[in-house]
Amino acid sequence: xxxxxxxxxxxxxxxxxxxxxxxxxxxxxxxxxxxxxxxxxxxxxxxxxxxxxxxxxxxxxxxxxxxxxxxxxxxxxxxxxxxxxxxxxxxxxxxxxxxxxxxxxxxxxxxxxxxxxxxxxxxxxxxxxxxxxxxxxxxxxxxxxxxxxxxxxxxxxxxxxxxxxxxxxxxxxxxxxxxxxxxxxxxxxxxxxxxxxxxxxxxxxxxxxxxxxxxxxxxxxxxxxxxxxxxxxxxxxxxxxxxxxxxxxxxxxxxxxxxxxxxxxxxxxxxxxxxxxxxxxxxxxxxxxxxxxxxxxxxxxxxxxxxxxxxxxxxxxxxxxxxxxxxxxxxxxxxxxxxxxxxxxxxxxxxxxxxxxxxxxxxxxxxxxxxxxxxxxxxxxxxxxxxxxxxxxxxxxxxxxxxxxxxxxxxxxxxxxxxxxxxxxxxxxxxxxxxxxxxxxxxxxxxxxxxxxxxxxxxxxxxxxxxxxxxxxxxxxxxxxxx
Length: 483
Hints:
By secondary structure, the protein is of the alpha/beta class. The protein folds into 3 domains: about 5-85, Winged helix-like DNA-binding domain superfamily/Winged helix DNA-binding domain (Arc Repressor Mutant, subunit A), CATH 1.10.10; about 115-125 and about 365-475, Aspartate Aminotransferase, domain 1 (Alpha-Beta Complex), CATH 3.90.1150; about 155-360, Type I PLP-dependent aspartate aminotransferase-like (Major domain) (Aspartate Aminotransferase, domain 2, 3-Layer(aba) Sandwich). It has helices at about 20-35, 45-55, 55-70, 100-105, 135-145, 160-170, 190-200, 215-225, 265-280, 300, 330-340, 350-360, 365-390, 415-425, 455-475, and strands at about 75, 80-85, 120, 185, 205-210, 225-235, 235-240, 250-255, 285-290, 305-310, 325, 395, 405-410, 425-430, 430, 445-450. The protein has an 8-stranded mixed beta sheet, sandwiched between helices. Strands 12-13-16-15 form a 4-stranded antiparallel beta sheet. It has a two-stranded antiparallel ribbon with strand order 1-2. Strand 9, helix 10 and strand 10 form a beta-alpha-beta unit. The radius of gyration is 34 Å and the shape is elongated.
């Protein structure tokens, strides 16, 4: 039924240049907006409304057509013209307001942006891809695609068997005895660490980490909502005493050339850490991002039931390949594989096959040996430059073959402010705050010479010294660190 609205109140300005159709459309729209014509109301036929208003029927048809194009009216066969109603005003919707509490714990990129005219970047702990045999690996990868159609399908749950066999062989060289069925291939060590957190922790559980420690592990711990128990790192490795008298789910450790300090944990500390972890009822995650070179037995070799190995090829190949693995008892691996399938069916099979062939040929160790010579030259240059330009500072790491230097700044200095001042001078360094479990800003910097050009080392550290002294002067700091 057509609306019983009194249309006689509609007035037209016949002297206006505005067409009657547009004037009528405006009048109808105003009545809809005020509720006089509610949603679902039937309008008169064009003939009826034209007669009631004393205007041409074509003007009414024009008004109806205009409002239909705007979505305000709809014409239906057998039902006539019906009011659809005004579209609701768009509300101020902020999807960020829906973020989970866990997501809010993930900090943004904290490292200060580096200028285009970069002098030296000591902030990255990644291999220099110039030493990687790209052409050889590309041929291997292409051959894998061409010859093996089985690589075009889904992978076995644990990853390609031939790659897991090669990984097991490599681990055995270091005393970590695992079969291929006790290894799951992951998309990088970071995914492996994520799987371990998701599989073994609930919000509120306690997880122990070295302090300072790898920033990616801290980000995962915060995202998981666990309680972080810091294990202070000293020259001999992390202190196990915070584990005494409490229950902990996971203990995350890097015994070889720990990131960020470069410290290698001593024999006594390794024994103490395993004993304390056992008393706390914890599973130990040994991050083997560095291949063991100290000659000390890995934790996963000492206690294969409690300690699991988290490995990666990012340091020996290139980070972009994202090949990592977890080696653990079969019951743990089976659970991890279940969790992995909830978000990632597989790490790309052709890449796994190519890496397996690469490992069999020993090509990764050849690339590593070639790169090690260059890293050692950079390390020597960095140690010399630090003694020359920053003689008042001490550091951990920086011994033969170690690309990491953990600098101890004057007490009270902000590592983040020094990093920002260095970035302004074209030098990248990582502030201690990036690695601090408590989120504090300690007086430390991490320098890595894994990628910086040897010719840039001296000038980069000279500019870093300028940045440090500027921050110290502005802060009124006098005392130098004693370590």
